[in-house]
Amino acid sequence: MKQLLRKIFFPILTVFESGEEEFVYKSTHRTILLFLGFMFSGMSIMVYYVAQGKDPGYYLPVIIFGVIGFVSFIIGFLGTDRAVSKIWGTR
């Protein structure tokens, strides 16, 4: 199942998994990344329900928070150690 999902999200994963430079990976980086994905997804859902119907401009934070949360989940669950360390900028 994981390999199928990696094939589906290949365009996102290649951006973060590319490169040959050294990287530093800690398991806590992945845990924190998943937590941040949960937080951003929660903020996206909260903004959607709180500001629904008041102003069409509220879609911008919903989209931004949703995309950040989605990419965090993809990298956190499916990404390699290199992808996680690239998110944090550790080399």
Chain-wise SSE layout:
Elements: H1 2-8, H2 10-17, H3 27-50, H4 59-78, H5 81-88
Helix pairs in contact: 2-5, 3-4
Features:
single chain; mainly alpha; 91 residues; 0% strand; 5 helices
Can you walk through the features of this model?
With 91 residues, the protein is an all-alpha fold. It has one domain. 74% of the residues lie in helices and 0% in strands. It has five helices and no strands. The longest helix is centred in the middle third of the chain and has 24 residues, at 27-50. The chain is elongated.
Concise account of the structure shown:
The chain has 91 residues and is mainly alpha-helical. The chain has helices at residues 2-8, 10-17, 27-50, 59-78, 81-88.
Rounded to an integer in angstroms, the radius of gyration calculated over CA atoms is 15 Å
Our estimate of the beta-strand percent is under 5%
Total beta strand runs: 0
Number of helices: 5
Number of separate structural domains: 1
Chain-averaged pLDDT: 89
Poorly predicted tracts of residues: none
